[in-house]
Write a structure and sequence with these properties.
A hairpin with a 3-residue loop joins strand 2 and strand 3. The chain has 2 domains: 89 residues, Arc Repressor Mutant, subunit A (Orthogonal Bundle); 138 residues, Four Helix Bundle (Hemerythrin (Met), subunit A) (Up-down Bundle). Strands 1-3-2 form a 3-stranded antiparallel sheet. Helix content is 71%, strand content 4%. It is mainly alpha-helical. It is elongated, with a radius of gyration of 19 Å. The longest helix has 25 residues.
């Protein structure tokens, strides 16, 4: 793995997991020191993260974690719902056996992670559940389009899952129900539940200020303990 790839993955994971807040200013120098590398790969990672919509580079100001508006979330989630609806239907038409096997594996892994309160693991297996539709629909254009917003939405869903109201338990039961509908051959019921499952984030955003709303771009990252953050994620 190149240093740029490592920097990209480590910073991306910190954003998605909530270790780095929406709108937070990022220090190229301090992150490089925390990762034990020069600034060049971190700078290149910032560019790649910008292209994924995860950071914003402001000339004469600095680099910041992205901070979506409620309208951004609404637009991205609707886009994802449209793509996943089509991917679900096509994947079940083309590769139903593989899809159902992958969903069963993902659900079992999610159940184990939920029991252990392993939220990073739960997030990965949740993503694997949805990836089954995208990767088995045999349409690389749907998969590429999905990747435009998938990581940003994952970061938002992590914050939703960390809130009150037993969201993870509800989410897990919805995954089970989607798979059960598909196993029974009821594609329309599965697709309707999948759409509701994706769009629930819009209700959350309407009633909760986005974390980035509380962060000013005048803030400085000097007090951020990047070394502790990244060493903890390495452990």
């Amino acid at each position: 793995m190149s240093m740029t790839t490592e920097a990209f993955e480590r910073i991306r994971d910190a954003i998605v997991s909530g270790g780095l807040e929406f709108g937070e200013p990022l220090s190229e120098t301090q992150i490089a020191n925390a990762l034990g590398m020069s600034k060049a790969p971190v700078r290149a990672a910032f560019i790649a993260l910008r292209d994924k919509g995860l950071v914003v580079v402001v000339p004469q100001s600095g680099t910041y974690v992205f901070s979506p508006t409620a309208e951004d979330v609404l637009t991205m989630s609707r886009f994802r719902a449209l793509l996943e609806d089509e991917a679900l239907r096509e994947s079940m038409r083309r590769n139903p056996g593989r899809v159902l096997a992958r969903l069963e594996t993902a659900i079992a892994a999610m159940a184990r992670a939920l029991k252990r309160s392993d939220w990073d693991g739960y997030r990965r297996h949740d993503s694997a559940f949805h990836a089954a539709f995208l990767e088995e629909c045999d349409n690389r254009y749907i998969e590429r389009a999905y990747l435009l917003t998938s990581t940003a939405l994952e970061a938002l869903r992590v914050r939703l899952q960390g809130g009150e109201g037993g969201y993870r338990v509800r989410s897990f039961r919805e995954h089970e129900a989607i798979a059960a509908h598909l196993a029974a051959g009821d594609i329309d019921a599965a697709a309707e539940l999948l759409r509701d499952h994706i769009l629930v984030i819009n209700d959350w955003v309407r009633s909760h200020p986005l974390p980035g709303d509380r962060i000013s771009r005048k803030d400085k990252p000097e007090d951020r303990d990047y070394a502790a953050m990244f060493s903890a994620r390495r452990a």
